[in-house]
Amino acid sequence: MPNKKLLILGGTGEAAQLAQQAVDVFGNKLEVVISYAGVTRHQPDLPCEIRVGGFGGPSGLIDYLKENNFTHLIDATHPFAEQISMHAYVAAQDLEIPFLILWRDEWRAQIGDRWLDVSDMEEAARQVAAFGVKTFLTIGVKELSAFDGIADVAMVVRLVNEPAQKLPLANYECVIARPPFSVEAERELIREKQIRLLVSKNSGGEATRAKLEAARLEGVPVIMVRRPPQEPVDYVTHPREAIQWLNMHGV
């Protein structure tokens, strides 16, 4: 039986890559468990234990880590998953176990981009109201309520699953699709839906970058929501660096 046990908090493609690489590199030396919140109802097929569901706050995560004898913790959730990242930080501090954040590089504006950086979703909503043009929301479902009340702006909302109930928006249509997306497909969507403004979180990564290239080519401005501040711990931007970190921390 392995004497080291890793919990990966998943939700990104990088998390799945890390789980696969950890099993490949460490084999029987390391037991790997990856946990998903279950929001998208889709988990990849991986050669390790897959857990789905929440923990019940930082105390629940602490109990889970302690009861299951985890020795290492890596947060590879979405860069905007602030709550679970904070809980992971608190749990790792409480249990004094090695903790790493796998945080992919953020996107940076290129020549020809027309980006307006904003600090949060509320500011993004104010800018959408000010622009007053048909808007493409690519921010997931959780923060759509920030745009409630903007009745005179038509919105196109992209989600990975059909919403279970009516969205908190006055004037919208849904597009259901799962990344990755191609630049040409994104350009076609912009033209077909007559989109004149794009709202995005600065999530980074390759799976959804195409929308930004398409916006640049189609002359569509982008309201880009900045990332929240990260916890003051070790962090890397690539799964292979996380493997190196595990090597350096006793695996």
UniProtKB/TrEMBL annotation:
It comes from the Bacteria. One of its GO terms (biological process) is cobalamin biosynthetic process. Keywords: Cobalamin biosynthesis, Oxidoreductase. InterPro entries: Precorrin-6x_reduct. Pathway: Cofactor biosynthesis; adenosylcobalamin biosynthesis. One of its GO terms (molecular function) is precorrin-6A reductase activity. The keyword Oxidoreductase applies. NCBIfam families: precor6x_red (TIGR00715), PRK08057.1-2 (NF005968). This is Precorrin-6A reductase. It comes from Terasakiella brassicae.
